[in-house]
Design brief:
It comes from Linum tenue. This protein has 185 residues and is α/β, with parallel strands linked by helices. The chain is built from 8 helices and 7 strands; from the N terminus they run αβααβββαβαβαβαα. The longest helix is centred in the N-terminal third of the chain and has 16 residues, at 2-17. Mean pLDDT is 87; it is low at 1-15.
């Protein structure tokens, strides 16, 4: 019986030490982000910072990241295309790396999760970069481009991020939607 209690304690300790990075591209095609996060350098830097798991939502992309079971203490890497809801993935994440969609940004900030927003440079008239850059300037998140993701992760100080003030993001989302020509909800 003693070894079973010890086993349960170890399993609890393992679960407590789990630190997951959740990457989301939303419903878009953003292979540049998936490729950037799938490099050995980025995975090594995440592991160096204490992260144990990397879960990548690849959306409509064609690039398939390398899965890893965590052999030899390496980072566990998994991916999926779409989910009916990413809310649970966001809640269980220790760090979120996201495309610059306003819904993903505000949902992550509402949950109080550290966030790196990666701007999709392939989008024309990219209003999303303006939102991400403004929120980064206010120190609510980090903003990067795919080619600078490694540097952003290496240089980030999550303690320097300021909580996003609780409130209703709906007016901001409606403003963005009006700017794009979509009706208010």
């Amino acid at each position: 019986m003693g070894w079973q209690c010890g086993l349960k304690l170890q399993m609890g300790e393992i679960e407590q030490k789990r630190k997951t990075v959740f990457v989301t591209v939303g419903t878009t095609l953003f292979d540049a982000l998936v490729k950037a996060v799938d490099t050995e350098q980025v995975k090594h830097e995440l592991q160096r910072r204490g992260y144990t798991h990397l879960l990548i939502q690849i959306g409509r992309g064609s690039y398939i990241p390398d899965k890893c079971e965590g052999e030899g203490g390496s980072l566990v890497v998994d991916y999926f295309t779409f989910s009916s809801s990413i809310a649970e993935h966001l809640r269980s994440a220790s760090l979120v790396i996201s495309h610059a969609g306003s819904g993903s940004i505000f949902e992550t900030l509402r949950l109080g999760k550290p966030l790196i927003v990666v701007v999709n440079e392939d989008l024309m008239d990219n209003h999303q970069s303006e939102l991400a850059e403004e929120l980064a300037e206010r120190k609510h998140l980090y903003c990067a481009h795919p080619q600078a993701l490694l540097e952003t992760i290496a240089d980030m100080n999550l303690e320097s991020l300021l909580p996003y003030p609780a409130g209703d993001a709906k007016p901001v989302i409606n403003l963005i939607n009006r700017f794009l020509g979509f009706p208010d909800d």
